[in-house]
Amino acid sequence: MDSRGIGKRIIGVVMVLCLLAGTVSFNTSHVYAKATTESIKQKEGQISNAKKERDTMKNSLTNLQNVKKSLEKEKTDLNNYITQLDANLESIQKKIDELTEKIAEKEQSIKETEEELEEAIRIQNEQYEAMKDRIRFMYEKGNALYFQFFVEAGSFSDMLNKAEYIEELSAYDRAKLEEYIAHTELTTLTKEALEEEKKTLDEAKADVVIEEENLQNLIVEKNKEVNSIAGDIKDKEAAIAEYEKQIAEENATIAALEKAVEAEKAELAAQNVRKYDGGMFAMPCPSYSRISDNFGMRMHPTLGIQKMHNGVDFAAPSGSAILAAYDGKVVAAAYNSTMGNYVMISHGSGLYTVYMHASSLSVSTGAEVTKGQKIASVGSTGRSTGPHLHFGVRLNGNYVSPWNYLK
Predict the structure, then answer these.
(1) Rg of the Cα atoms in the chain
(2) How far apart, in Å, are the Cα atoms of 54 and each of 51, 102, 106, 205?
(3) 272-291 exposure pattern, b = at least 16 Cβ within 10 A, e = fewer
(4) Which helix (H) or strand (E) holds 225?
(5) What distance in Å separates the CA atoms of residue 339 and residue 247, rounded to the nearest whole number?
(6) Of 81, 200, 231, 313, which residue is 20 to 30 A from 262 by alpha carbon distance?
(7) What are the beta bridge partners of residue 181?
(8) What pLDDT is attached to residue 50?
(9) How many Cβ atoms sit within 10 Å of the Cβ of residue 259?
């Protein structure tokens, strides 16, 4: 075979390879373009959702003035007032928890969008460089290469085939240009989505500050009202009687629960009854272990006389985790105008722990809990004058020092 024949064979092979590469790349580009279009739609949806989220957050903020106004009519009945106010405190704490969760989600979403943007910019730059190389090649070689294809055609049919190859290459170039344009749009939308997510994050953080201020404002209002009621009682004996009535109500509620548990135990006597194994308790509020009021006789802060304090008060901010001190069964997870939101756990052998004044409860009556499990969040519900956990331990119907069981 002469050199002319060999040259034709080589050009033919090159053309076939160009056709195959162009066809495969064109099909790949088609699939890529479709995926890019879907990504663009997703980013447009992400931008729209971020804006809607901010509107929803703004509309759901607590209107403190309306809350205070609605509470005014309840002030003549302290128990009703406390019950209504505690419901608002619980609602605000729930909003704070939801916003805190949203902040964590947004921070993760922003991290993912930043990674997507980084990848989008990388691909965009690669596409741009590839297009520059292709344009430079076509500028330098394009017309001469096409002319050579036609000159080397062995027949009219062969020339038509080569024309088809050239059309495939042109289609490939157009597809690459469209791919670059689409990806540029995706990069722009990803940047916009990132900015919208950051705005939502900033607003969520600002809303948390507002709701925490609302929470503290209501707690201050509650403290003033509870203290003013106590101050209005001019006869100290009446004040003492009121306090003792409050404690009696607490004890009656808890004693009734203990009685119900004992009745249940009697019914289950044939089965394995829970027994306390003597293990030491975990701290129920481990992040904040400052004692604001200890177990035992103390000078009552408003009555000015020595009275028994039947638990340990742990000072902690609203929303701090309250943990089960030991394995057991929840015999009560409820609300009481004196104890506020409270949890009571049976550990067997007549031993119980009580957790009072929670902002919210994480367990239900009947639940089995393990030592260290979160059961509630610190608050100031019930007859409380500030956020704290009142932790009590009862053995065989009487309060005992929690320090007998705590590490």
Answers:
(1) 37
(2) 5, 11, 12, 11
(3) eebebeeeebbebbeebeee
(4) helix 156-232
(5) 9
(6) 313
(7) none
(8) 78
(9) 11
pLDDT at 7: 38
- 45: enclosing H helix or E strand: helix 3-59
pLDDT band at residue 351 using 50, 70 and 90 as cut-offs: very high
First to last CA, the chain: 97
Say if strands 321-323 and 312-315 run parallel, antiparallel, or are unpaired: unpaired
- 106 near 201, Cβ under 8 Å? yes
Report whether 331 contacts 257 (CB < 8 A).
yes
Percent of the chain with pLDDT over 70: 68
Q: Are 149 and 165 in contact (CB under 8 A)?
A: yes
Judge residue 25's burial from the number of C-beta atoms within 10 Å of its C-beta, 0-12 exposed, 13-18 middle, 19 or more buried. middle
Structure token digits, residue 186? 């995706």
Q: Across the strands, what pairs with 321?
A: 377
Q: Positive or negative, the Cα torsion across 313, 316, 320, 321?
A: negative
| Residues 376 and 364: beta-carbon distance below 8 Å | no
DSSP letters for 260-281:
HHHHHHHHTTTSPPP----PPB
CA distance 232 to 235: 9
Q: How far apart are CA 144 and CA 139, in angstroms?
A: 10
Distances (CA, A) of 361 to 98, 268, 364, 375: 15, 28, 8, 6
- Work out whether strand 368-369 and strand 328-336 pair parallel, antiparallel, or are unpaired: antiparallel
Residue type, 181: I
Segment 190-221, tens digit of pLDDT? 888 888 888 888 888 888 888 888 888 888 88
Over residues 123-146, the pLDDT tens digits come to 778 777 777 776 666 656 555 555
User: In angstroms, rounded to a whole number, what is the distance separating the alpha carbons of residues 202 and 196?
Assistant: 10
Distance CA 3, CA 11 (A): 12
Q: Does residue 1 have a pLDDT over 50?
A: no
**Residue 120 carries which side chain, given as an amino acid letter?**
A
Q: Which of 50, 52, 56, 54 is nearest to 109 (CA)?
A: 50
Please state whether the predicted TM-score (pTM) of the whole model is above 0.85. no
